[in-house]
Amino acid sequence: MKAKYDGYTFQMNENVTRTKVRFHNRYGIELVGDLYLPKAYSGKLAAIAVCGPFGAVKEQASGLYADELASRGFAALAFDPSFIGESGGDARNVASPDINTEDFSAAVDFLSVQDFIDPEKIGILGICGFGGMALNAAAMDTRIKATVASTMYDMCRVTAQGYFDAMDADARYELRKSLNAQRTIDYKNGTYARAGGVVDPLPEDAPFFVKDYYDYYKTERGYSERSLNSNEGWNTTSSLSFLNMTIQNYSEEIRSAVLVMHGEKAHSCYFSRDAFQKLKGDNKELLILPDTVHTDLYDRKDKIPFDKLQAFYTKYLQ
């Protein structure tokens, strides 16, 4: 199976240009992104860095968001996080709550020094697991003036506590034992075992959220050859760093604007509701979208509230 549009899962807007760019984070890892710009603009642009979902690449949902935002007058950078897609990192297919948060700030570094971008007008947008990373970045990086978390996962919480916090200490211990045993095997073999992407073939008794992921990652709708979720998944041991770390420790100290949006019918909606409860200030907003499931906010343009996103970024990137 191939992505529909020259490796991308969406058709680019005719009023937008796309240029591949390279930049690095402060760990020295080279990141690769697609910079989307409106074909016609004057003066310096406000800019938005976009990443996610967790296990996806820039040719999927983040590129779709960036393309649409550029068509509305913003510079938008969709990028692959460290160790994923075209981005660097010697170990592949691994994630880190620290490094992936840093990746957002690295994107801000890059955008800040472009002569056609106003460095005082930079925002970020994180989708799914990178929604949680985006909030973490906003708590750390005061250059970020506006943040959107779309259909957010808190990857540390779901890894350590399971869905709906059903995992107890004994279950975590057994998971740690299993993952650390795999570390030994990986080191002995000199390779990393993969956890597997979205299950395929789809079991008849699969829960709805698994069917939801399958409908995006394993069909023509959202399949990408570079996507971990579309293929063999993360390294099995990638979960280790998320078990003992948290990424929402200081989200209540975010002073810049935040919009948290989620589908009402998404299995993951509780992550956004709980994350929003920690935020403080009259520049924070929770938007719950009716009749919307998790992956609707990956690519369903009739579901993604782009008018709202445009208004939010216009207001806070002034």
Task: Explain how this protein is built.
The protein is 33% helix and 19% strand. It has an eight-stranded mixed β-sheet with strand order 1-2-4-3-5-6-7-8, sandwiched between helices. The protein has ten helices and eight strands. The protein has helices at 61-71, 97-112, 129-140, 155-161, 169-189, 208-217, 240-243, 269-278, 296-299, 306-316; strands at 16-24, 30-38, 45-51, 75-79, 117-127, 146-150, 257-263, 284-289. The protein is α/β, with parallel strands linked by helices. The chain starts with 15 loop residues before the first strand and ends with a helix. It is globular and about 55 Å long. Helix 2 packs across helix 3 (129-140). It has a domain at 16-154 and 247-316: Alpha/Beta hydrolase fold, catalytic domain (Rossmann fold, 3-Layer(aba) Sandwich), CATH 3.40.50.
What labels describe this entry?
single chain, 318 residues, alpha/beta, Rossmann fold, eight-stranded mixed beta sheet, 10 helices, globular
| Element order: H for helix, E for strand | EEEHEHEHEHHHHEHEHH
Strand order of the largest sheet: 1-2-4-3-5-6-7-8
CATH-derived topology of the domain at 16-154 and 247-316: Rossmann fold
Number of DSSP helical runs: 10
Structural class by sheet pairing and helices: alpha/beta
Give me the CATH superfamily of the domain at 16-154 and 247-316. Answer: Alpha/Beta hydrolase fold, catalytic domain
CATH class of the domain at 16-154 and 247-316: Alpha Beta
Please state roughly what percent of the residues sit in beta strands, choosing from under 5%, 5-15%, 15-25%, 25-35%, 35-45% or over 45%.
15-25%
Could you name the ranges where pLDDT drops below 50 across 5 or more consecutive residues? none
Inertia-based shape: globular
Biggest sheet, open or closed, and with what strands and sense? 8 strands, mixed
Radius of gyration using CA atoms only: 19 Å
CATH structural architecture of the domain at 16-154 and 247-316: 3-Layer(aba) Sandwich
